[in-house]
């Protein structure tokens, strides 16, 4: 098919063509970046914590005197373990999706020259790893002799476990077993590798959501008030309800922080509530843009069909088939949409660079541009199909008699 008639028609309707091209460009730019943001948010919600979330809950107490921490721990643990359905209860400093009380920067040499990144240090009493359901993939779990008083923040020296992700970051291509990690004057020696243990806070470094260390510790003034409870998955909600009620009797000298005292599944839901809400908003924006764009294409194509009835009739009279007329409008639409996509790609990357500069969002991957372009091309063909079929169905005699 010759393109000259198409170009001539578009030049004759420059304003309408320009408006629909700009509409498509805006839809392309917004949709590409929105899809990228949706994928990033969805990926965040799929975080693998490495623990048995369905069986776990946590209690967080505050307001107690540090000097009575050992007595508080003893009373609370005894009471929690007596609750029907509880299979284990331990003292821990934090859990995933909770408060990040052990976030520190580590180095890999005593002179603190080799940076190891920002990690979360989990402190747990004997049995905590088993309670959490942590899987060890290299080395071994702490022995009873590895559990030492926590000191001011961490044990002064400790044999620890690191996640595989953290180990690969600190010592790429090497076994971490026997390696040392330094936090000021604290020395950690690696004895094992955990498959996963997600950090409690939101990561500061992309890919750092699994940079964790588990240090065995004994309860004391700096390791008190936060407890992890294990029960059967179907019992954990009822067990946590009973545990929250029991705290008033077990620890009248402490305050239960209720928004941090919940099942791990509830904490996960709370952590990612904003992400899921944003996904819903972005999906709504995409659907609205596509709908408006489709209506714009249908309206423009219908207008042009009505204005070109005589032209269509003449073409039919001199031998053009219905398929020729249909293909004419499809090719015309493809050309218009392609112009919009070309402008939209420029706008999409301009918006992506702005987001990257001011909000540390990764640059838009090219496959989202391909996805946006393919969607708009398909949408354009579907939207123009109705008006094009109506144009192809106009009898030559009726068309040539039209005013």
TrEMBL record:
Report the GO terms under cellular component.
plasma membrane
MacB-like periplasmic core domain location is 48-244
Primary subcellular site in the record, as a coarse category: membrane
Any Pfam family from its record, for instance, is FtsX
Q: What PROSITE patterns has UniProt attached to this entry?
A: PROKAR_LIPOPROTEIN
- Name the membrane topology term: Multi-pass membrane protein
Signal peptide as annotated in the record: none
Please name the GO terms that the record assigns under molecular function: transmembrane transporter activity
| The entry's keywords | Cell membrane, Membrane, Transmembrane, Transmembrane helix
Transmembrane ranges, per UniProt, are 277-306, 333-355, 367-385
Keyword Transmembrane helix recorded:
yes
* UniProt-annotated location(s): Cell membrane
Looking at the record, the residues that make up the ABC3 transporter permease C-terminal domain are 285-395
Recorded family membership: Belongs to the ABC-4 integral membrane protein family.
For this entry, the protein name equals ABC transport system permease protein
